[in-house]
Amino acid sequence: MPVKGNNLFCPSCNKSQSQINLIDCEYCGHDLGAPNVNIVSTETELTALQGRYDNAMEYAIKSDKVDQLKNFENFFNNNVNGIINLSLHVLEAWIIQSGAYKSYHRAIGDKLRTIAIPSNDQKRTVLNSVIHGTYGRDMIYAALTLNCQGLTSYGNCSVILDEQAIESRATTLEENSYTFIKTHNLNLEKLEIPPGYRSNWQNKIKLAVAKLHKKINQDSNEKDFCEMILFSDGKRNGEDFIEVHVYKEITNFAIKIIYIPKSNNRREELVIKAIEEKCPGKVIRTE
Ligand SMILES: [Zn+2]
Fold first, then answer.
1. What is the pTM of this model?
2. Distance, CA 38 to ligand 1 centroid (Å)?
């Protein structure tokens, strides 16, 4: 980890960097790692997140719910995955045409997709910028899931990401960016993201507990845990989840499983067969 205390150090020449959000060493040019991970790995962020986690534990002790919280933690640790939902059309563009899933801005730059309508394009650009600054253009958005069910408003195909391919470049945000900005009143006058609401991949359990501990009670079962982590009724406004930000493109190699619903459409079936050929052993057909 190139972050020590609140400072970024070069893993090659060990020199301290003047800013936390650099991606190349100011001295030797060596890669400093994913900027989103570095930014949430400072002492300030880690201490704030640990404080929120400790408060949640204290709350569980006082309300006699420690066992329930431990059940949740175990279930979370055994089942958590990063998931991206998309339409078959977008999945085809990724797997067959490009070989890599790119961020919104990179995909436009590479002419892999068209720009969204003005209001949506403005929203995506603002969200990227508020949360990540310049690197927002390289950020891919996913969600945490405990049951391989994703955000169906984005499409009925689900891609489960291979943990090893993302753990060094993925961070989590307590809510989706759009809601988060409203919850914390972020705007041009107040751009500082409060510490403790994001985590690196290793600490995502702490963020989940900090967010959800008051909802967990004696009656909570595994299905409830799954819905607490990701709730989707197919409408964007009603979705609640922990957002995952992955720095840089996701290639076909970084895929663990792809869930694709069966189709009666002949062209779609041909596309699915082609996807199966590109990703052998990774495609699961669903009803
Ligand atoms: Zn260096």
1. 0.96
2. 15
